[in-house]
Design a protein that fits this description.
This protein is mainly alpha-helical. The chain has helices spanning 9-23, 29-40, 44-56, 75-111, 118-143, 149-184, 188-195, and strands at 27-28, 61-65, 68-72. Among the domains are: 9-73, Arc Repressor Mutant, subunit A, CATH 1.10.10; 150-195. Its main location: nucleus.
Length: 205
């Protein structure tokens, strides 16, 4: 024989709520563990977990008096909770219906002038062709970018800046060579050889 299947968490929750509604009374945890196991088939070890989950969901009330913790749930409160939840759902449905109506109106407005037609199809085809042509033209322009007067002028200015910088360094090198000659009485050819300076080293014209 197959083993009897145990109750699921949801089944235990349902049976415990039935227990509270039938008894219409207040209980200690120990009383719940004993009576729920006997009358509803909920094992005593799982009673605390189930009643805690029901308290967390606002379905069962609890209060501590002295050192004792009591639990209760009455049908009247459950009915009020259901009514409040139903009202919340109805308000939500009304809100969603209103939003749906607004979105439908927006979609219908957006469709005006965009109905499928021969002329619209032709215009969209022409637009696509023009975009392709533009892309091709941009590629051609990119090929001749080096001949662009602005690009050429930019290169010229950059070359001028580079030349000035090179000549400044040439100035510095000549100054250092002059100082070495005076300080150590070295021949210029010796200095050039020592520091790897070419014989034709000079300013850039």
């Amino acid at each position: 024989m197959s083993k009897k299947r145990g109750l699921s968490v949801e089944e235990k929750r349902t049976r415990m709520m039935e227990f509270f509604f039938e008894k219409k009374d207040v209980f200690l945890l120990k009383e719940l563990e004993k009576q729920c196991q006997k009358e509803k088939g909920i094992t005593s070890m799982s009673v605390k977990e189930i009643v805690t989950s029901l308290v967390d969901d606002g379905m069962v009330d609890t209060d501590k008096i002295g050192t004792s913790v009591y639990f209760w749930a009455f049908p009247s409160k459950a009915s009020q909770n259901r009514k409040r939840k139903l009202l919340d759902l109805e308000n939500r449905i009304e809100e969603l219906d209103s939003r749906k109506k607004s979105l439908t109106e927006s979609i219908n407005k957006a469709k005006i002038g965009k109905e499928e037609s021969v002329s619209r199809t032709e215009l969209l085809t022409a637009l696509s062709e023009k975009r392709t042509e533009k892309s091709q033209f941009m590629s051609e322009i990119e090929k001749y970018k080096e001949c662009d007067p602005e690009v050429v002028e930019g290169v010229r200015k950059q070359a001028e800046i580079s030349k000035d910088a090179a000549n400044r360094w040439t100035d510095n090198i000549f100054s250092v060579k002059s100082w070495i000659k005076k300080k150590f009485s070295f021949e210029e050819s010796v200095i050039d050889k020592q520091f790897g300076i070419p014989a034709d080293f000079d300013y850039i014209e």
